Amino acid sequence: MNEPIQAIIFDVGGVLVRTHDQSGRRVWEERLGLAPGQLEAIVLNSEMGHRAQRGEISDDELWAWVSQRFSLGDELDAFRPDFWRGDAVDQGLVALVGRLNRRYQTAIISNATDALLTTLEDYQLLVEFDLVVGSAYEGLMKPAPAIFETTLIRLGRVAAETVFIDDAPANIAGAQAVGLQTILFTPALDLAAELAALGVRTD
């Protein structure tokens, strides 16, 4: 028999915060001669992007590299907000987190640079969660088992008492390997119903 759920853990990018408008990135891709989607791949998913998410370089150092990579010079100050301006918080999920907070611990595990806490504060998300675990602060990224194990220790929970929600199948598999219950998120998913199926109250 499964343990009753005591904690719900969320991913940020692709779940709580999603890119709804790619136009800011598309403008720069056209200017820089890049294919659609290539800019995100370079900034976030290149080796330098992963180094920043592992905390090997700072967020500022990542953007300095981006500036050099594309010879942006003074235009970096315009490039950065354009890169992020299509991102928006899912307010429906935030409302759900608020309801969950009445009965459960809530936490974040995010593959992100050392700007994560500032970003969450800017989005007014930091106050919604009991615990934030960021890859840059821990020196390792999902789906590494240790980042899930660290989160469980800090929450004071065993894996079977927790649900982990992420949009990346690899991260879901990593959490399952540690024993967490999981939900693979998509924007069309009725997350409240999925949680209710696991015995989580969302009223």
TrEMBL record:
Listed PANTHER family: ALPHA-D-GLUCOSE 1-PHOSPHATE PHOSPHATASE (PTHR43611), FLAVIN MONONUCLEOTIDE HYDROLASE 1, CHLOROPLATIC (PTHR43611:SF3)
Protein name: HAD family phosphatase
Superkingdom to which the source organism belongs: Bacteria
InterPro entries, alphabetized: HAD-like_sf (IPR036412), HAD-SF_hydro_IA (IPR006439), HAD_sf (IPR023214)
Organism: Candidatus Promineifilum breve
